[in-house]
Specification:
96 residues; GMP Synthetase, Chain A, domain 3; 3 helices; elongated; OsmC/Ohrsf; KH_dom-like_a/b; Redox protein, regulator of disulfide bond formation; OsmC/Ohr_fam
């Protein structure tokens, strides 16, 4: 199950970084932290809540990063589109 979260993080990271590169947004560092809550005592125990924390370092336009995240999770990331059928996916952004 942890590999599913890792797949979501990798898929979304590639999308976000690709979108920002096309917009000529340069960042110094990029990290993702993901937490997932599974259905208690269910078999199979699927994810019901997933939160992705995007951490971006550098002088960036926050609105461009937010737009890239939304595009990734709502349109491009096939892992997110698969998981959203059973889990609520939320995200936050920290710009350092």
């Amino acid at each position: 199950m942890e590999l599913l979260l890792m797949g979501l993080g990798g898929c979304s990271a590639i999308d976000v970084l690709s979108i920002l590169k096309k917009q000529r947004v340069e960042i110094a560092d990029f990290k993702i932290e993901i937490n997932g809550e599974r259905e208690p005592e269910a078999v199979p125990s699927l994810f019901q809540d997933i939160h992705i924390k995007f951490i971006v370092k550098g002088p960036v336009d926050t609105s461009k990063v937010e737009k890239a995240i939304v595009l990734s999770l709502d349109k491009y990331c096939s892992v997110a589109k698969t998981l959203e059928k059973t889990a609520k996916i939320t995200w936050s952004l920290d710009v350092v």
